[in-house]
Amino acid sequence: MAPKKKVATSSARVARGKRRATVNRATKEVRVDVTLVLDGTGDASAKTGIPFFDHMLEQLGKHAGFDLTVRAQGDLEVDAHHTVEDTGIAVGEAVSAALGDKSGVARFGSALVPLDEALVQVALDLSARPYLAHDVDAKSKVIGAYDTRLTEEFVRAFCQAAGATVHVRMLAGKNPHHIVEAEFKALARALGEACRVTGDGIPSTKGKL
Protein backbone atom coordinates (compact mmCIF):
# COMPACT_ATOMS: atom_id res chain seq x y z
CA MET A 1 0.00 0.00 0.00
CA ALA A 2 1.48 3.35 -1.04
CA PRO A 3 2.17 5.81 1.80
CA LYS A 4 -0.08 8.81 2.14
CA LYS A 5 1.27 11.95 0.55
CA LYS A 6 1.82 14.99 2.71
CA VAL A 7 -0.76 17.60 1.75
CA ALA A 8 0.34 21.18 2.26
CA THR A 9 -1.34 24.46 1.57
CA SER A 10 0.28 27.87 1.90
CA SER A 11 -1.21 31.28 1.39
CA ALA A 12 0.71 34.53 1.40
CA ARG A 13 -0.70 38.03 1.66
CA VAL A 14 1.47 41.02 0.82
CA ALA A 15 0.69 44.52 2.05
CA ARG A 16 0.49 46.89 -0.91
CA GLY A 17 3.34 49.36 -1.04
CA LYS A 18 5.11 47.85 1.96
CA ARG A 19 7.69 45.13 2.33
CA ARG A 20 5.65 42.93 4.58
CA ALA A 21 3.86 39.62 4.24
CA THR A 22 1.68 37.16 6.11
CA VAL A 23 1.95 33.42 5.44
CA ASN A 24 -0.41 30.75 6.68
CA ARG A 25 0.79 27.22 6.05
CA ALA A 26 -1.15 24.09 6.92
CA THR A 27 -0.38 20.40 6.46
CA LYS A 28 -1.79 17.29 8.10
CA GLU A 29 1.05 17.60 10.61
CA VAL A 30 1.65 21.30 11.24
CA ARG A 31 -0.04 24.71 11.18
CA VAL A 32 2.34 27.69 10.89
CA ASP A 33 1.40 31.37 10.80
CA VAL A 34 4.08 33.95 10.05
CA THR A 35 3.91 37.73 9.83
CA LEU A 36 6.98 39.59 8.61
CA VAL A 37 8.00 43.22 8.13
CA LEU A 38 11.37 43.53 6.42
CA ASP A 39 11.81 47.20 7.32
CA GLY A 40 11.13 46.65 10.99
CA THR A 41 12.81 47.28 14.32
CA GLY A 42 13.80 43.74 15.29
CA ASP A 43 10.60 43.07 17.22
CA ALA A 44 10.39 39.26 17.17
CA SER A 45 8.15 36.73 18.88
CA ALA A 46 7.88 32.97 18.39
CA LYS A 47 5.73 30.26 19.94
CA THR A 48 6.19 26.83 18.40
CA GLY A 49 6.10 24.56 21.43
CA ILE A 50 9.89 24.14 21.16
CA PRO A 51 11.45 26.65 23.59
CA PHE A 52 15.01 26.65 22.22
CA PHE A 53 13.71 26.95 18.65
CA ASP A 54 11.55 29.90 19.73
CA HIS A 55 14.68 31.54 21.11
CA MET A 56 16.49 31.02 17.78
CA LEU A 57 13.61 32.42 15.71
CA GLU A 58 13.57 35.50 17.91
CA GLN A 59 17.32 35.87 17.33
CA LEU A 60 16.65 35.65 13.59
CA GLY A 61 14.13 38.49 13.62
CA LYS A 62 16.04 40.64 16.09
CA HIS A 63 19.41 40.55 14.36
CA ALA A 64 18.01 40.84 10.83
CA GLY A 65 16.11 43.96 11.87
CA PHE A 66 12.81 42.35 10.90
CA ASP A 67 9.53 42.41 12.77
CA LEU A 68 8.77 38.70 12.87
CA THR A 69 5.97 36.78 14.51
CA VAL A 70 5.79 32.99 14.30
CA ARG A 71 3.06 30.78 15.70
CA ALA A 72 3.14 27.03 15.08
CA GLN A 73 1.22 24.01 16.27
CA GLY A 74 2.69 20.69 15.20
CA ASP A 75 2.80 17.01 15.98
CA LEU A 76 5.44 17.34 18.69
CA GLU A 77 4.31 14.01 20.12
CA VAL A 78 6.04 12.49 17.07
CA ASP A 79 9.07 14.78 17.18
CA ALA A 80 9.98 18.36 16.31
CA HIS A 81 11.08 17.72 12.72
CA HIS A 82 7.82 18.61 10.98
CA THR A 83 7.36 21.79 13.02
CA VAL A 84 10.90 23.04 12.42
CA GLU A 85 10.92 22.20 8.71
CA ASP A 86 7.52 23.71 7.96
CA THR A 87 8.41 26.82 9.94
CA GLY A 88 11.48 27.17 7.72
CA ILE A 89 9.25 26.92 4.66
CA ALA A 90 6.78 29.49 5.99
CA VAL A 91 9.48 31.99 6.98
CA GLY A 92 11.14 31.55 3.58
CA GLU A 93 7.83 32.10 1.80
CA ALA A 94 7.24 35.25 3.83
CA VAL A 95 10.67 36.65 2.92
CA SER A 96 10.12 35.86 -0.76
CA ALA A 97 6.66 37.46 -0.77
CA ALA A 98 7.79 40.57 1.09
CA LEU A 99 10.73 41.08 -1.28
CA GLY A 100 8.49 41.07 -4.34
CA ASP A 101 10.60 41.43 -7.52
CA LYS A 102 13.65 42.32 -5.34
CA SER A 103 14.04 45.69 -7.00
CA GLY A 104 16.74 47.77 -5.33
CA VAL A 105 17.88 45.19 -2.77
CA ALA A 106 21.52 44.50 -2.01
CA ARG A 107 20.90 40.82 -2.92
CA PHE A 108 24.11 39.55 -1.28
CA GLY A 109 24.81 39.37 2.43
CA SER A 110 27.44 37.88 4.69
CA ALA A 111 28.24 37.80 8.37
CA LEU A 112 30.87 36.39 10.68
CA VAL A 113 29.41 36.06 14.16
CA PRO A 114 31.21 35.05 17.36
CA LEU A 115 29.50 33.83 20.50
CA ASP A 116 32.12 33.24 23.16
CA GLU A 117 34.27 30.39 21.80
CA ALA A 118 31.98 29.73 18.80
CA LEU A 119 32.45 31.41 15.41
CA VAL A 120 30.08 30.88 12.48
CA GLN A 121 30.10 32.42 9.00
CA VAL A 122 27.11 32.77 6.67
CA ALA A 123 27.14 34.08 3.10
CA LEU A 124 23.97 34.24 1.05
CA ASP A 125 22.55 35.34 -2.28
CA LEU A 126 18.88 36.04 -2.94
CA SER A 127 19.44 34.42 -6.30
CA ALA A 128 16.16 32.55 -6.88
CA ARG A 129 18.41 29.46 -7.04
CA PRO A 130 17.91 27.50 -3.82
CA TYR A 131 21.10 25.87 -2.56
CA LEU A 132 22.51 25.10 0.87
CA ALA A 133 26.08 24.26 1.84
CA HIS A 134 26.08 23.52 5.56
CA ASP A 135 29.31 22.70 7.38
CA VAL A 136 28.48 22.81 11.09
CA ASP A 137 29.15 20.34 13.89
CA ALA A 138 27.05 21.35 16.88
CA LYS A 139 28.97 18.87 19.11
CA SER A 140 25.76 17.49 20.60
CA LYS A 141 22.55 15.98 19.24
CA VAL A 142 20.26 17.80 21.66
CA ILE A 143 19.93 21.12 23.46
CA GLY A 144 17.15 20.62 25.96
CA ALA A 145 14.40 19.07 23.82
CA TYR A 146 15.81 20.52 20.58
CA ASP A 147 17.61 18.23 18.14
CA THR A 148 20.55 20.28 16.85
CA ARG A 149 20.42 18.45 13.52
CA LEU A 150 17.14 20.24 12.82
CA THR A 151 19.00 23.52 12.38
CA GLU A 152 20.22 22.35 8.99
CA GLU A 153 16.69 21.22 8.11
CA PHE A 154 15.32 24.66 8.99
CA VAL A 155 17.90 26.47 6.88
CA ARG A 156 17.43 24.09 3.95
CA ALA A 157 13.65 24.55 4.03
CA PHE A 158 14.15 28.32 4.26
CA CYS A 159 16.50 28.29 1.24
CA GLN A 160 14.04 26.33 -0.88
CA ALA A 161 11.10 28.58 -0.05
CA ALA A 162 12.97 31.90 -0.18
CA GLY A 163 14.93 31.05 -3.32
CA ALA A 164 18.28 31.69 -1.66
CA THR A 165 21.77 30.30 -1.96
CA VAL A 166 23.21 29.97 1.54
CA HIS A 167 26.63 28.82 2.72
CA VAL A 168 27.13 28.18 6.44
CA ARG A 169 30.52 27.37 7.90
CA MET A 170 31.50 26.82 11.51
CA LEU A 171 35.01 28.10 12.15
CA ALA A 172 35.22 27.37 15.88
CA GLY A 173 33.08 26.14 18.72
CA LYS A 174 32.69 23.72 21.61
CA ASN A 175 29.41 24.63 23.30
CA PRO A 176 26.34 23.40 21.33
CA HIS A 177 24.14 26.32 22.44
CA HIS A 178 26.77 28.85 21.37
CA ILE A 179 27.30 27.16 17.99
CA VAL A 180 23.64 27.00 17.01
CA GLU A 181 22.90 30.49 18.28
CA ALA A 182 25.89 31.92 16.41
CA GLU A 183 24.55 30.27 13.23
CA PHE A 184 21.09 31.82 13.61
CA LYS A 185 22.58 35.23 14.36
CA ALA A 186 24.93 35.01 11.37
CA LEU A 187 22.03 33.98 9.14
CA ALA A 188 20.03 36.91 10.47
CA ARG A 189 22.78 39.47 9.89
CA ALA A 190 23.48 38.21 6.37
CA LEU A 191 19.78 38.12 5.51
CA GLY A 192 19.18 41.62 6.85
CA GLU A 193 22.07 42.92 4.74
CA ALA A 194 20.86 41.15 1.58
CA CYS A 195 17.29 42.44 1.97
CA ARG A 196 18.35 46.04 2.53
CA VAL A 197 17.32 48.50 -0.20
CA THR A 198 20.49 50.05 -1.62
CA GLY A 199 19.53 51.27 -5.06
CA ASP A 200 17.12 50.99 -7.96
CA GLY A 201 16.33 48.23 -10.39
CA ILE A 202 16.89 44.50 -10.27
CA PRO A 203 20.40 43.59 -9.02
CA SER A 204 21.18 41.22 -11.88
CA THR A 205 22.49 41.53 -15.43
CA LYS A 206 19.58 39.24 -16.40
CA GLY A 207 17.12 41.91 -15.38
CA LYS A 208 15.25 39.40 -13.21
CA LEU A 209 15.80 37.33 -10.09
Summarize the structure.
This protein has helices at residues 51-64, 81-99, 150-162, 176-195; strands at residues 8-14, 20-27, 30-37, 44-47, 67-74, 108-115, 118-125, 131-135, 142-143, 146-147, 165-172. By secondary structure, the chain is α+β, with helices and mostly antiparallel strands. The protein has a single domain, classed as Ribosomal Protein S5, domain 2 (2-Layer Sandwich).
Strand content: 25-35%
Query: What is the CA-CA span between the terminal residues?
Result: 42 Å
Number of strands: 11
If you average the pLDDT, what whole number results?
Answer: 94
Might you state the CATH topology name?
Ribosomal Protein S5, domain 2
Number of helices: 4
* CATH level-4 homologous superfamily: Imidazole glycerol phosphate dehydratase, domain 1
Number of spatially distinct domains = 1
CATH C-level class:
Alpha Beta
Class from secondary-structure proportions: alpha+beta
Strand order of the largest sheet: 1-2-3-5-4
| Rounded Rg | 16 Å
Give the helices and strands as they follow along the chain: EEEEHEHEEEEEHEH
> How would you sum up the global shape?
globular
Question: Runs with pLDDT <50, length 5+?
Answer: 1-5
Give the second-level CATH assignment, the architecture. 2-Layer Sandwich
Note down, in words, how this protein is organized.
- The chain has 209 residues and is α+β, with helices and mostly antiparallel strands.
- The chain has one domain: Ribosomal Protein S5, domain 2.
- Helices cover 32% and strands 33% of the residues.
- The protein has four helices and eleven strands.
- It has a five-stranded mixed beta sheet, with helices on one face.
- Helix 1 (51-64) runs parallel beside helix 4.
- Mean pLDDT is 94; it is low at 1-5.
